[in-house]
Design brief:
This protein is of the alpha/beta class and 172 residues long. The strands form two sheets. Strands 3-4-5-6 form a four-stranded parallel beta sheet, covered by helices on one side. Strands 1-2 form a two-stranded antiparallel sheet. InterPro entries: GHMP_kinase_L-arabinokinase.
Length: 172
């Protein structure tokens, strides 16, 4: 939500990024199947997303890198701004193009190129610091960190109260 009465935020999810087994483990089979299905049905997905965008009539698509939505916005003439410290195309490439998997590498390379093409249709791709290099994209612009300024807190007393232990070494 926003406190600006002149801004209307419309949440809309378009992709999975990567299916995860847990916080540190990618489900490659599930992710690969999703991307393969997305690739094989890409025109239909883009058409459906374009239709939904036309119904919403936004002034701009400001998004956290859903490549289908970016392609759809371009299709119906809606400007788009992508912003993220990563892009799914390069992550996908690392998992499904650079390394041998159960999926056909030629088809997965086509899917990768499809994602890059979609990302290239964003008017600009903002990269907050820190971010991936994204050398595969030509429409990126580095921006500084995007954070709320906080207050430094020494958590040692809280940890001592909770555990009774004064620590010098600990594992995160």
């Amino acid at each position: 939500s926003t406190t600006d009465p002149n801004l209307c935020l419309i949440p809309y999810e378009q992709d999975i990024g990567l299916s995860m087994i847990d916080a540190m483990t990618c489900d490659l089979e599930s992710s690969g199947r999703w991307y393969l299905d997305n690739h094989l049905n890409y025109k239909q997905r883009v058409s459906e997303a374009a239709y939904k965008l036309e119904q919403l009539q936004p002034d701009v698509l400001f998004c956290n890198i859903p490549f289908v939505s970016i392609e759809a916005a371009a299709l119906v003439g809606i400007p788009s701004v992508a912003m993220c410290s990563l892009n799914w195309a390069d992550i996908f490439h690392g998992y499904f193009v650079e390394h041998e998997t159960q999926f056909d590498r030629t088809v997965m390379t086509e899917a990768y190129e499809q994602m890059l093409n979609a990302y290239s249709k964003a008017d600009i791709f903002l990269r907050p610091t820190p971010s991936m290099d994204m050398a595969s994209l030509r429409n990126t612009q580095e921006i500084g960190p995007i954070v709320s300024e906080g207050t430094w807190r020494d958590l040692r007393d809280i940890v001592f109260t909770a555990t009774g232990c004064r620590f010098h070494k600990f594992v995160l």
